[in-house]
Amino acid sequence: MPDQSPHKLVATAKAVLLSPVGRAVLALGLVLLVGVAFNADGAFFKTGTHRDALRQMSVYGMLACGMTLVITTGGIDLAVGSVLALVAVCSATMAIHWEWSAWLVVPLSVLIGAACGLGSGVVTAWLRVQPFIATLAMMVFARGLAKQLAGGMKVSTAVPQADGTYQYVDVPSLYRAIDARLLGGHVSTVTLVFLACAAVAYLVLSRHRLGREFYAIGGNAEAARLSGVPVVRSTVWAYVLSGALAGVAGLCQASQEQQGDPEAGAGYELTAIAMVVIGGTSLMGGRGGMGLTLLGVLTIGYLDKILSINAVPSATRLMLTGVIIVAAVLTQKRGRY
Length: 337
Prior knowledge:
Layout (H helix, E strand, L loop, with lengths): L3 H15 L1 H18 L9 H26 L7 H18 L4 H25 L4 H20 L7 E3 L5 E3 L4 H6 L2 E2 L4 E2 H19 L1 H11 L1 H6 L4 H27 L10 H12 L10 H20 L4 H22 L2
Helix pairs in contact: 1-2, 2-13, 3-8, 3-9, 3-11, 3-12, 3-13, 4-5, 4-6, 4-11, 5-6, 5-11, 8-9, 9-11, 12-13, 12-14
Pfam families: BPD_transp_2
InterPro entries: ABC_transp_permease
Protein name: Ribose transport system permease protein RbsC
């Protein structure tokens, strides 16, 4: 029939737009079109702009990877920004002030983040406290602990001495390595660290039994329990992994700033949630994936970069992030009907 092709095309386009991948790709495409239209006198077309955009979104992306694991179980992790700050302070103290080897600083930083995640997971899954409350408590606790350990100051290369003076030391080789650029200066090391974190999260979520248990718990926790899924243990693992990835993000944040700032990471959890949601992972749990989160990271990261090169104030960027979260949730809701 001659009039069937247009109907098929419309039906296919509608099916694509109603799918999570279609909506995520469309959102990224629209953001890139905005970048082309508002290119800041050609700045958007420069290689350095894209390199810096990928570098800037990498730390957020690491948090989003962990957030995806937690949200898949139907939970939320509001503590990742504060855990990032705590690990940044601890890693700076170990690497700068105590001059510990990278072989100690890296695993200990990840373990500190994982320990915070373990605390959130135990309170959430074992003590049956709402994830919002449990991770809110961890958010406040980790931020306070970071300030306590840092003495209310940034842990920098100016090391205080017993006589009240300061001795300036070199930036640790670990920090210089993480903050370096590779492949002729076109790729930042921190971007590769982010991709490694995304690969690990993908393998856990898509290729490991733990990932299947996350989806089952997020879909229906009681049904998962009756089916033999260890709901408590698996939920705790989701928060542990999220904390560990926040630990990696904290180490990278300290490396880029060359110091441990107890105020770092404030509000990062909102950006991480926005990246996961705009990608299409359901806040209700049970649906989503790392591929969608990567699209969300690129969308929010490029949107922030485009607003930055066009000198849009940070307050406006925050308001746009809030609007995007609501729009993404409404789109998800519409897509279910």
